[in-house]
Every structure is written in C-alpha cells, then in structure tokens.
C-alpha cells in the first residue's frame, strides 16, 4: 500500500514543531533516530517520509502518530494567510530552499533593510 502524503504540509509541520522547541536539525535527528540531512530534506520538501520515519518524528515530538497526523490538517501555509501576490509566494518558497546559515543572513538583511527604510521614510 503506497502512502500519499501532503509533503508541503509535512515539511512545514516538522519545521514549525522543531523551531517551537528551539531544536536544531541535529537535535531533532537525534531524537527521531535519523540524520540531520534527512531532516533538512524533509523540511525543504525534497523527501517524503516513510511510515517508520513519521513514527520516529511523532515520538521525538512526544506525541502519538495519530496526533502528529491530525496536526497536518492545520499545518499548511495556506491555512495561515492568503498570499498578497505571486512575488510573496515565490519569496517564501525560495526561503524554504535556503540553508539555515543562508536564512539567517537573509533575515539579518531584511531587518537592516526595514530599518533603513524607516530611517529614510
């Protein structure tokens, strides 16, 4: 039996739960008995998790698999906000493809740019 999973929602949920706990990808990988590379691929929507991996992730987040699966209904970005335009969606999709270091650099730039615009405006 093949599993058909909403991978975008899974990638978002894994990232959200990990960051809420203040864990690195290495921390989650250790708790889920997998590799940090696997966690990275999952969060970037480059890999669909196996059932065993889903069980490991649920356990790492201290929940049962059914609880983890129930969160998928709420996890997707489409439930958070509507896109203002296609550029915003493209920016977010691109951000998800960045490494942690690249994300940090981009966020620092955005903070700087916002401050610079406030100073000018």
In words, what does this structure look like?
- InterPro entries: Cro/C1-type_HTH, Lambda_DNA-bd_dom_sf, TransReg_Diox_bact_type.
- This is Helix-turn-helix domain-containing protein.
- Keywords: DNA-binding.
- Residues 14-68 form the HTH cro/C1-type domain.
- This protein has helices at residues 7-20, 25-32, 36-43, 51-60, 65-75, 86-96, 100-120.
- It folds into 2 domains: 7-79, 434 Repressor (Amino-terminal Domain) (Orthogonal Bundle); 86-120.
- By secondary structure, it is mostly helical.
- Helix 1 packs across helix 5 and helix 2 packs across helix 3 (36-43).
What keyword list fits this structure?
mainly alpha, Lambda_DNA-bd_dom_sf, 2 domains, 121 residues, TransReg_Diox_bact_type, 7 helices, 434 Repressor (Amino-terminal Domain), DNA-binding, Cro/C1-type_HTH, elongated, Helix-turn-helix domain-containing protein
Could you outline the blueprint of secondary structure elements for this entry?
Layout: H1 7-20, H2 25-32, H3 36-43, H4 51-60, H5 65-75, H6 86-96, H7 100-120
Helix pairs in contact: 1-5, 2-3
């Amino acid at each position: 039996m093949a599993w058909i999973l909403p991978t975008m929602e899974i990638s978002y949920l894994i990232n959200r739960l990990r960051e809420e706990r203040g864990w690195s990808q290495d921390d989650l990988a250790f708790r889920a008995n997998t590799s940090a590379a696997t966690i990275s691929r999952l969060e970037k929507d480059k890999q669909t998790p196996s059932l065993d991996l889903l069980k490991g992730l649920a356990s790492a987040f201290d929940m049962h698999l059914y609880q983890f699966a129930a969160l998928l209904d709420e996890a997707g970005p489409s439930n958070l906000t509507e896109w203002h335009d296609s550029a915003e969606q493209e920016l977010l999709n691109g951000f998800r493809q960045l490494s942690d270091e690249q994300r940090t650099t981009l966020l620092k730039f955005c903070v700087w740019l916002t401050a610079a615009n406030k100073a000018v405006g």
